[in-house]
């Protein structure tokens, strides 16, 4: 059976599944039950400075987007960092770490962007026995208005500076948690790297207004008729997170920097995808909030089965395997030609593929043949875009079939070539050079 244990920047955990800093990791009561359920690690709900704790709204703090079956696709929140006092959190962390020495316990921190504030809190965290710290430079609401969270995460110079303080004054491994609310994620990642970060984690939540009530004209969640933007997470954000992880994994300056992947991990497959893009651990929040702590058991079993099937003995055996396959558009092979093919036995004749192709693609799918409702791809029109695959309600009913070398593409009349040819070499490219990737 596959060995799921991980050693991430020196922090060991029995599996790569960590709970992200959020309500599920808010207190010992939760964290202990999470460990009992099988979570390999936990990033404790973000701690703030000593003194009066932050105050949350007393009304709804969540908004959501659902699929037609009411399954949660995206979650929006306006919660702040922990609203429990620092002493209580530190005491509970100490007790929990003592009882669960084999599980990872990471302290997430957000204090003002001043040297003294960071210098003061670091030894207190170390005293708890925590395995590492995560710098919360991500929270996009509330705390950012006070110059913390995303307000720091959006300024690479600040990220570097605070990371340097944490390396200078602290002994624990430093994970810098990045905000996705920035144009190019490589800049904050490079800054964290320059500051000496041991790892980055991403993504934190995405600034969002999830919906507007059309009776009260208030954004949701509505607090007495008014709303403010919140942070978006859950399955809907996974594509954004994967892209940002890939950007960091393949960037010349940050390649090899350990990454803890976060954002929309709902199943073992999601986790495996983050690992394939280079992540050493994955963090989960919304899935645990939606389905409870025991969801980790399905994740562990699924990942383990997948690894057994593929012959991967450890996470390291497939970590990063997808990174070399992420490239820029200009390097994609323009000689790779596919055609859509409809499996007539599976087709329920709904006509969606025809409408999509007719109105937005290449008018390549019939609707009537000899006066009878029939959906079939005309190869001489099909550009292989796969829009029809994505709108078809029947899984595997339409597949994309690559053309073989030497065949003639009926659309262009050209013979399919075996060699790789990308835009940098294409005759239509005025900048074409002989250079391949
Ligand atoms: C209600 C709520 C509170 C959160 N609080 C924190 C926090 O205190 N510190 C932090 O770093 N991230 C916080 N997050 C962000 C999560 O740790 C995580 O980065 C994000 O939800 C994306 O993961 P997911 O798609 O699995 O939910 C919070 C998320 C939610 C939903
Ligand atoms: S792949 Fe694109 S062009 Fe071809 S049939 Fe489907 S939608 Fe039409
Ligand atoms: S969308 Fe799929 S099921 Fe519907 S007609 Fe097209 S191929 Fe058939």
Short structural summary:
The protein is an alpha/beta fold. The protein is built from twelve helices and 20 strands.
The percentage of residues in β strands lies in 15-25%
Radius of gyration: 25 Å
Count of discrete domains: 2
Q: Quote the distance from N terminus to C terminus.
A: 39 Å
- What CATH architecture label of the largest domain applies? Alpha-Beta Barrel
Helix content: 25-40%
Which parts are unreliable, with pLDDT below 50 for 5 consecutive residues or more? none
Ligand types: flavin mononucleotide, iron/sulfur cluster
Chain oligomer state: single chain
Let me know the largest β-sheet. Answer: 8 strands, parallel, barrel
Strand order of the largest sheet: 3-4-7-8-9-10-15-16
CATH superfamily of the largest domain: Aldolase class I
GO molecular function, one term: dihydropyrimidine dehydrogenase (NAD+) activity
Keywords: Iron, Iron-sulfur, Metal-binding, Oxidoreductase
Enzyme class: oxidoreductase
Function: Involved in pyrimidine base degradation. Catalyzes physiologically the reduction of uracil to 5,6-dihydrouracil (DHU) by using NADH as a specific cosubstrate. It also catalyzes the reverse reaction and the reduction of thymine to 5,6-dihydrothymine (DHT).
């Amino acid at each position: 059976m596959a060995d799921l244990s991980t050693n991430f920047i020196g922090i060991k955990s029995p599996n790569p599944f960590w709970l992200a800093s959020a309500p599920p990791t808010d207190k010992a009561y939760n964290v202990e039950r999470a460990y009992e359920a099988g979570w390999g690690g936990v990033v404790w709900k973000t701690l703030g400075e000593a003194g009066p704790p932050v105050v949350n709204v007393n009304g709804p703090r969540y908004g959501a987007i659902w699929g037609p079956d009411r399954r949660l696709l995206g979650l929006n929140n306006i919660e702040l960092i922990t609203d429990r006092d620092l002493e209580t959190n530190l005491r509970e962390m100490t007790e929990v770490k003592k009882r669960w020495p084999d599980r990872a316990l990471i302290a997430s921190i957000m204090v003002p962007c001043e040297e003294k504030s960071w210098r003061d809190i670091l030894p207190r965290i170390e005293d708890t026995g925590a395995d590492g710290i995560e710098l919360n430079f991500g929270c996009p609401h509330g705390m950012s208005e006070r110059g913390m969270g995303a307000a720091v995460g959006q300024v690479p110079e600040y990220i570097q500076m605070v990371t340097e303080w944490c390396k200078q004054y602290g002994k624990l491994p430093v994970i810098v948690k990045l905000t996705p609310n920035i144009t190019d994620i490589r800049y904050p990642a490079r800054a964290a790297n320059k500051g000496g970060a041991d790892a980055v984690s991403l993504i934190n939540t995405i600034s969002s207004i999830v919906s507007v009530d059309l009776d009260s004209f208030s954004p949701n969640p509505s607090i007495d008729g008014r709303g403010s933007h919140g942070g978006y997470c859950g399955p809907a954000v996974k594509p954004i997170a994967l892209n940002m992880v890939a950007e960091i994994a393949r960037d010349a300056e940050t390649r090899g920097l350990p990454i803890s992947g976060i954002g929309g991990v709902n199943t073992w497959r999601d986790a495996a995808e983050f690992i394939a893009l280079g992540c050493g651990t994955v963090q989960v929040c919304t899935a645990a909030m939606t389905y409870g702590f025991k969801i980790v058991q399905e994740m562990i079993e699924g990942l383990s089965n997948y690894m057994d099937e593929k012959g991967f003995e450890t996470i390291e055996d497939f970590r990063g395997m997808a990174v070399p396959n992420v490239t820029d558009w200009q390097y994609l092979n323009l000689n790779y030609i596919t055609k859509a093919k409809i499996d007539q036995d599976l087709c329920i004749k709904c006509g969606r593929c025809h409408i999509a192709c007719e109105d937005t693609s290449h008018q390549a799918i019939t609707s009537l043949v000899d006066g009878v409702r029939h959906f079939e791809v005309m190869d001489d029109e099909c550009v292989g875009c796969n829009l029809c695959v994505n709108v078809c309600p029947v899984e595997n009913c339409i597949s994309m079939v690559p053309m073989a070398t030497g065949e003639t593409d009926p659309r262009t009349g050209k013979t399919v070539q075996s060699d790789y040819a990308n835009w940098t070499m294409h005759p239509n490219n005025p900048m074409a050079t002989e250079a391949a990737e």
